[in-house]
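Q: Predict the bound structure with KG4.
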Amino acid sequence: MTILGLESSCDETSVSIIQDGRILSNLIASQDFHVKYGGVVPELSSRAHLQIIAPLFKQALEVAKIKKEDIDVVAATAGPGLIGALLVGLNFGKALAYSLNKPFVAVNHIEGHIYSGFLMDKKPEFPLLTLVVSGGHTLLLLVEDDLNITKLGSTIDDAAGEAFDKVAKMIGLGYPGGPKVQEYSERGNPKAILFPVANLKGEYDFSFSGLKTAVLRHIQKEYKNSENIPEEEKPDIAASFQDAVVRALGKKVEKAIKNYDVKTLSLVGGVAANKVIRNKLSELAKKYNKKLVIPDIEFCGDNAAMIAYRGGKLFENTVVSNLTANAFPALPKDVFKKL
Ligand code: KG4
Ligand code: ZN
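A: Predicted complex:
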């Protein structure tokens, strides 16, 4: 079974071909030019996807050493994401499926991230507890099998990645913020400033907006504004913020491990590249004797291999889409089962 995956939900165009669960190619073209705008510019993103998707597809076939006629199923991200960006990959996929007369599967980007764990040699076993931490989402999910995913909790305001990006901007570290905060944190003391972790009603919900405000207040109180923060004090602020994020995530994951008898714990999404968060989950997996699966860094960020893998699993479960499937910007409310 040869599956083509297409991903274009944000600022990465990616094309991947997987065959019987093995990755033959996974090409990722990142739109680095957004850096000068301090964030992703949606219209520029769509145009860049449009320019690169066809040549990237051709290259993916070459790397995989297959012809387009060898593709059995076409899978593409339908959402959530930037609508104009999503339309590029989705329509390319639909047109290709139509011209090749092959089945088409529209894939939810978040489900793609969940399945990035399955691209590793060490595969997750169900039931699986997954923490999804990306630029747009923070979700704690219980995955019982391919078609039964329950949302235990999610963020009530900012996503974890968003908080990393915004705090990086406040400290003057630039964009994208996550990797910069991690880099500065390595030279800082995580206990230098005690930033608070929100106490929420929802047992498994998260909130990062208060933490972001606490960092802003600290900066205003100590330095009046961002420009006055001495370079040598930035690592302590970054490390203390990161420590608060780790405490917030760890607390809810630990609670879920205690209450649900899962076999595997997994950490996915762009923020899963963070070393300290990876260490925290590995510590929890050891403490509660769970199998731990965290994708290699290459598969934490947006990639089409995870979309192909998830598309293949849906196809195996006889879930296919028709060619009228549309792009959607936000996570539909009923996509995961509720507690
Ligand atoms: O999953 P992703 O590539 O895109 C979305 O679907 O949102 O996640 C991107 C997010 C950004 O907010 C970025 O700052 C964050 O992941 N990120 C990190 C690290 N690397 C990327 N956050 C913390 N530590 C990192 N090392
Ligand atoms: Zn993503």
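A: The mean pLDDT is 97.
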